[in-house]
Amino acid sequence: AQSVTQLDSQVPVFEEAPVELRCNYSSSVSVYLFWYVQYPNQGLQLLLKYLSGSTLVKGINGFEAEFNKSQTSFHLRKPSVHISDTAEYFCAVSRHLTQGGSEKLVFGKGTKLTVNP
Amino acid sequence: DAGITQSPRHKVTETGTPVTLRCHQTENHRYMYWYRQDPGHGLRLIHYSYGVKDTDKGEVSDGYSVSRSKTEDFLLTLESATSSQTSVYFCAISGAPQNYGYTFGSGTRLTVV
Fold it and tell me: Once rounded to an integer, what is the mean pLDDT over residues B40-47?
């Protein structure tokens, strides 16, 4: 079965600084990859996803992520963060099923990003 | 999120009472899920459904049951609430294939006293 590891539970940064939130996965087969964001007292919303094609994926709010198959990583980046980016970020993975059907997503435990003025 | 609503948004209940949370969707999606979110644990899957009357257990299903008699509604019942079930509960939906991503509801904050 696949698993997801978010390497940092908390990441504090200053406003306008760059940020990288790290995500590694384990799977013996090809995967789909996702980043979700959860603002305080809200549900999760999709930031971006990788299904196939270009390994650099652009999402909402200026975020992007790069799929690295050899390193089994899908790190999330933003070149300049704002106070409003303060939220919890979740990485998720699911496996391709070549024989048909589909699989549930597996979520990491989340990374809390705090952007300070 | 648009197309998925959870009710109630907040609930306080006493230990030992039954509680039912509702998830309603207008997207006609096949898959529906119930998660709980607790500090340090991330999201944990309680139960999920892959069609009307078709449900299965997730990783933390003890003390919970679900029902799905219509495509649009997925009910989560705490048969006899305990303080350990104090949590934020999220419903999610997905079309097919389900691994193309989920849409989440806004959550229900449940406190068991």
Answer: 91
